[in-house]
Amino acid sequence: MRAVSQYVKFTYERERAHIAPFDELAELNACRRKLLDLGLIGVDSNGIGFGNLSVRDGATRNFYITGSATGGLPKLSPTDCVRVVAYDFEKNWIGYEGGAVPSSESLTHAAIYESDPLTSAVIHCHDSGLWATLLDHAPTTSKDVAYGTLEMAYEIMRLFKAVDLQSRQIFVMAGHEGGIVAFGKNLEDAFDVVMHERRASTPCMQNDFHERNSSRHDG
User: Fold this and answer.
1) Residue 114, helix vs strand vs coil
2) Of 126, 131, 189, 201, which sees the most CB atoms within 10 A?
3) Are strands 11-16 and 93-97 parallel, antiparallel or unpaired?
4) pLDDT (tens digit, 9 = 90+) per residue, 144-167?
């Protein structure tokens, strides 16, 4: 199956049409609820969903990730997620199981799991104020690299080697305004990283985080 969404920039191939309920789904929904309440994931004024989450499947290279266009849903079921069971950066390709379209950031998540075996959860959210505060002060991808691309996956792997991204657990997408990615040993850990950075930021940032921008995408 070739990518049909304008937001998905890789080739994806479905290996099985359904996935069984997975243990981490409750944790995923609990974290999404908090992010939705804060406006860090959701749907923008143009009706486009933004934000995506994933959890590693045990100790494997596989991971469960929220499907494309699910950012605004209040609660997800297994049909709203996919299980990524294979990926090839050189071919810009992923293999997956499930009925949804894989998140446009699936290769981004894959690059993090590939770079850090201790990471078991990833959050991609949007916060304009925090993004501006952390830009070039936290690990930051090149402004010339677009979200969801093979180049973004390689840029993330470069950051893991060039700076202490593994301990910082958060980076900013300079070429994707508002885009922030945090990761950790589980979703609670990754969420706490985002909250810590928000608390440490200037008070004026708190008045800014609900702002939307046209660079958001469908997850």
Assistant:
1) helix
2) 126
3) parallel
4) 999 999 999 999 999 999 999 999
